[in-house]
Amino acid sequence: MKRIVIVGYGAVAYLIGFAAFVYAIGFLGNFAVPHAIDHGVAAPAIEALIVNVLLLVAFGLQHSVMARPAFKRWWTRMVPEPIERSTYVLATGLVLAVLFWQWRTMPALIWDITWPAGRLSVQMLFWLGWVIVLASTFMINHFDLFGLRQVYLVWRGLPYTNLEFRTPLLYRVVRHPLMFGFLITLWATPRMTLGHLLFAAGMTSYILYALRWEERDLTTVLGQQYRDYRSRVPMLIPRPQATRWPR
């Protein structure tokens, strides 16, 4: 019975987290969703700024605090370790759902690309960013990243084993292709409003801040292996010679 509950919890957490991921595409792209970045809750400018900043801070705190090893050690005293990752994914999905639901529209126009070829190029770049994001998760282990591998191993009665450190494909070009893809999706828009600019700037700041902590944690765990990787492969901006890093 316990195994069924754990697997069910992991599956529900995955579905909620992945649903938030899919919704984010429509949210940033302003299509196919009821609340988008430029079609959110109408509000006065000051209210919109305060609420949107608070929403971004809430996401940043949840995403950073729950990812820290010290928090994980404390958290797993109360939550079974096999669902720790699923709980993180679930919390992320719920926080994003609130952000999408309560986002205030800030319609002031920053730029608007009207040239058809330029507009199409930026839209294609937007979709390329999402392809990079999703593909990056499968290049390491999508199911471990989203907590499904952990609950599957419980179902099989097998102990959890840490994944081997690998640098496949895009990970030979930049150390964090997942975040590289997200940065593209944040900024690749033919029509940039003040609200979109706030969201993109806030998330970019969070990504740059969070990566410093993640790199410190990875260096602590992997030691010289990760230091060598850092010396050869750039963090976010690709450079041609990075592709020579061996698999």
From TrEMBL:
So what does this thing catalyse? methanethiol + S-adenosyl-L-methionine = dimethyl sulfide + S-adenosyl-L-homocysteine + H(+)
What GO cellular component entries does it have?
Answer: membrane
Q: Which GO terms describe its biological process?
A: methylation
User: Where is the protein localized?
Assistant: Membrane
The answer on whether this UniProt entry bears the keyword Transmembrane reads: yes
EC number(s): the record gives: 2.1.1.334
Recorded hits in Gene3D superfamilies, A to Z, give: 1.20.120.1630
Q: Which InterPro entries match?
A: MddA, NnrU_dom, Nurim-like
**Keyword field contains Transmembrane helix:** yes
**Which class of enzymes does this protein belong to?**
transferase
Q: Which topology term describes how it sits in the membrane?
A: Multi-pass membrane protein
Pfam families cross-referenced by the UniProt entry: NnrU
**Record field: transmembrane:** 12-33, 45-65, 86-104, 124-148, 169-188, 194-211
Q: What is its main location?
A: membrane
Q: Its Gene Ontology molecular function terms? A: methyltransferase activity
The NnrU domain extends over 53-209
Listed A to Z, the keywords are: Membrane, Methyltransferase, S-adenosyl-L-methionine, Transferase, Transmembrane, Transmembrane helix
Q: What is the similarity comment for this entry?
A: Belongs to the nurim family.
Family matches, as PANTHER family: NURIM
> What is the documented function of this protein?
Catalyzes the methylation of methanethiol (MeSH) to yield dimethylsulphide (DMS).
Task: List the NCBIfam families hit by this protein, alphabetically.
Answer: MeththiolMtaseMddA
Q: What is this protein called?
A: methanethiol S-methyltransferase
